[in-house]
Amino acid sequence: MADNDGEALPDLPPSAKLVYKVLEYNGAMTQKDIVEESMLSARTVRYALERLEEIDIVSEDVYFADARQNLYNLTETGEAATDGTPDQAVSDD
């Protein structure tokens, strides 16, 4: 794993946070599925996944249904990233 200089989910760009939320709500997905669900460009999703992998929030596995694609899922670190902490999204208050 690359050195992440203490970076955490709140420090990442909005696109990475959106990809994180998509994976949190939907579970394991391919990059193509994330692009469709998030409505982000493929390039933006690739960058977001790369950033999430650097801080060990997302893992990449082989997608056995189509070996040309990878399956992305939250790691235990990623699942715990928001557990026990207040939601950092903007509220309607």
Structure, described:
This is MarR family winged helix-turn-helix transcriptional regulator. InterPro entries: WH-like_DNA-bd_sf, WH_DNA-bd_sf. It comes from Natronomonas aquatica. The radius of gyration is 13 Å and the shape is globular. It contains four helices and three strands. The protein has helices at 14-26, 31-38, 42-54, 76-79, and strands spanning 29-30, 58-62, 70-74. The chain has a single domain (9-77), classed as Arc Repressor Mutant, subunit A. Residues 84-93 have low confidence and may be disordered. Helix 1 (14-26) crosses helix 3 (42-54). Strands 1-3-2 form a three-stranded antiparallel β-sheet. By secondary structure, it is α+β, with helices and mostly antiparallel strands.
Which runs of at least 5 residues are low in confidence (pLDDT < 50)?
Answer: 84-93
In round numbers, the mean pLDDT is: 85
CATH topological fold name: Arc Repressor Mutant, subunit A
Helix content: 40-55%
Question: What sequence of helices (H) and strands (E) makes up the elements?
Answer: HEHHEEH
In the sheet with the most strands, the strands line up as 1-3-2
CATH C-level class is Mainly Alpha
CATH architecture: Orthogonal Bundle
Give the beta-strand count: 3
Quickly give the structural class: alpha+beta
**Strand content of the residues, in percent?**
5-15%
Name the CATH homologous superfamily: Winged helix-like DNA-binding domain superfamily/Winged helix DNA-binding domain
Cα-atom Rg, whole angstroms? 13 Å
Count of individual helical segments:
4
